[in-house]
Each structure stands twice: as structure tokens, then as C-alpha cells.
Design brief:
mainly alpha
Length: 153
């Protein structure tokens, strides 16, 4: 792990060990394991974008778990998942503001309509464009819902 984000994660693991913070340590170790697994699977050291994608995936898993635990009435488990999600979000890049997201959606939709795309093709093309510009800085599930609404209306 040679890039800055991987180094930050490694330093955070050391700090969590020193602080005896088991929740933080466990979450960061799972993140490091996922990063190392990606390195082994692809036989290359993951770059910052790949690490952000891993963090996004783990954050999405936590959000889904929080929703499941909350609907099942398991507040303690949901709180544990929320704590892990908060730790993961510390390593994400600064989020895009709503105006920036709206402008990016409008531009992507305009581009797909200019190409004459409709339906699923327009949705796929727009999300491809948006993923390139907003990945790691916005909740892509929420962006997808906004694009779908914009294309329908």
C-alpha cells in the first residue's frame, strides 16, 4: 500500500491499536483486508480510486445493514453498523454539494438526450457519465434515483 489513502488507513489502524478502540480497529482491519484482497486478485497495487470504490462498497453494505436492523427493531446492532459507517466515511473524499450533483445530472441527461438515447440506454449512459465525475463524492443510489426521475419527467 503505497498511496496516500492507504497510508492514512494504515496510520489509523496503528492509532486505533494504541487507543484500544476495538470498533475502529475492527472496521479498519476489514477495510485493509479488502484492499489486500483486491491487490492479490488483480496482481496490482490498488490506486486511490480503487480504494475509494472498496470503501464505497463497504459503506453501502453498512447502510443496507442499518436499514435491515432498524426494520427488525435491533437498535443496538444498527448503532454498531452506524459507528462502522462513520469510520469508513472519514476516508471518503469531500462530498459534492447538492447544487453540483443537480448540475451534473442535468448535464448528463442533456448529453444522453442530445444523442437520442431513451429508456434504459439513456439511464446507463447518464449513470456512466455521472459515475466518472461523482464517484466517491455522492451516494450513487440517490443519484440514480434522481436521474431516473429526471428521465421520466
Amino acid at each position: 500500500m503505497s498511496n496516500a489513502l492507504a497510508t492514512r488507513i494504515a496510520e489509523a489502524v496503528k492509532a486505533a491499536m494504541r487507543a484500544h478502540d476495538s470498533t475502529r480497529l475492527g472496521t479498519l482491519r476489514l477495510l485493509q483486508a479488502a484492499i489486500k484482497q483486491k491487490a492479490v486478485d488483480q496482481r496490482v497495487e490498488p490506486d486511490e480510486a480503487a480504494i475509494i470504490a472498496i470503501i464505497e462498497k463497504q459503506a453501502k453494505q453498512r447502510r443496507e445493514s442499518i436499514a435491515a436492523f432498524a426494520s427488525a427493531g435491533r437498535a443496538e446492532s444498527a448503532a454498531q453498523e452506524q459507528a462502522e459507517l462513520d469510520i469508513l466515511l472519514e476516508f471518503m473524499p469531500q462530498g459534492a454539494d447538492p447544487e453540483e450533483i443537480a448540475a451534473a445530472i442535468e448535464a448528463a441527461v442533456a448529453q444522453t438526450q442530445a444523442q437520442g438515447l431513451q429508456g434504459g440506454a439513456a439511464m446507463g449512459k447518464a449513470m456512466g457519465l455521472l459515475k466518472a465525475s461523482l464517484s466517491g463524492r455522492a451516494d450513487m443510489a440517490a443519484v440514480s434515483a434522481q436521474v431516473k426521475a429526471r428521465l421520466a419527467g
